Prior knowledge:
Layout: H1 5-8, H2 16-34, H3 37-50, H4 54-79, H5 83-90, H6 94-125, H7 129-143, H8 149-175, H9 179-187, H10 196-207, H11 211-221, H12 230-260, H13 270-308, H14 315-319, H15 321-339, H16 343-367, H17 371-374, H18 382-409
Helix pairs in contact: 2-8, 2-11, 2-12, 2-13, 3-12, 3-13, 4-9, 4-10, 4-11, 4-12, 4-16, 4-18, 5-6, 5-16, 6-7, 6-13, 6-15, 6-16, 7-15, 8-12, 8-13, 11-13, 12-13, 13-15, 16-18
Amino acid sequence: MADHTMITNTTKPQKKKGKLGIILGAIFIMATSAIGPGFLTQTTVFTEKFLANFAFAILASIIVDIGAQVNIWRIIAVSRKRGQDIANMVFPGLGHLVAALIVLGGLTFNIGNVAGAGLGLNVIFGISPVKGAVISAILAIIVFSIKESGKVMDLIAQVLGGIMIILVGYVMFTTHPPVGQAVVKSFLPDDYGILFLPIITLIGGTVGGYITFAGGHRLLDAGITGEESIPEVNRASTLGIIVTGIMRVFLFLAVLGVVTAGHKLDPTNPAADAFKIALGDLGYKFFGIVLWSAAITSVIGAAYTSVSFLRSFHPFFDKFNNYIIIVFILFSTLVFTIVGKPVTLLVIAGSLNGLILPLTLGSILIGSRNKKIVGETYKHPMWMILFGIFAVAITTYAGWVSLQGIADLWK
């Protein structure tokens, strides 16, 4: 079983080369957690619907995402505390609520991630999605069963994240998208109002739920903390969003090139159809590789981050962290193989996800002014607080919309 030193130590000094690897790992763990199967479909569907105007939604969401994530990662680093502990210090019991929502949401989303991994291997090798899901789950479990699983997780996130960006970038160049038009519409869309819901949807999918804590908790577990680490944390948190944004822009432009050429996408699998139209059978295989890479890294990221929200509540969770992660992955896979993809649960989990960021970011912002949390010397910049308040306001509205969605399910 894995050596837990890498995962649990938060004070061990890091050598320069090893530190850089951890920072890159944190960047890509966050980014690849955001880039899951839903990310691919969501981006494709919005691109086909809004065409070049969708560029404005992407740009606006990236700006808000950076504001939210820099606040969260920075206070986690300065306080040397996980998100749930900060929330509990701000309001007793709030951290437990946040942890419950994140673990429940992460577990449910992981069923979809496992399904996506199975479908990816189905596209690449032609095996059944269930067999593909089981194989993918075994590979994810191996990651948390070997020595220094943290380093292995970092490396996998970097390699597969790089592969996804390269493949989607190649497809983008082959579709010859109207880049100039997309640049103009990034600032001057035809209708700002119709893009509001896509914007908050993108924000929820990028920094909602467990995702924004994936890299922040990774840096904390590796000991990259304290005021002296602020410059590195700032860069890492910003670059995590930028990597996600690059992938989103490449996919957007790739699909935009296809649909502006007059092609209509298959609504049952629009992202796969876009790749196939662009490059034929080779494009379809590329999609399989991208889908599997997105899904398996999301399986790993969701399991690692969701379980990290339990670690400070009882020594049991910290001592047996990797075992619990493995059980988390096994349970997700078992549900998929026996029941299939639980659509209603996924919809409800997605809706609840919209409620998590206002709670977590709101508690982070309050905690940033509490010297018991951040210490006597640290002062959180006011522009960051204002940026964070703006993000809380937008995501609170998104949460309200999500609650209405849950109510509609039971009508």
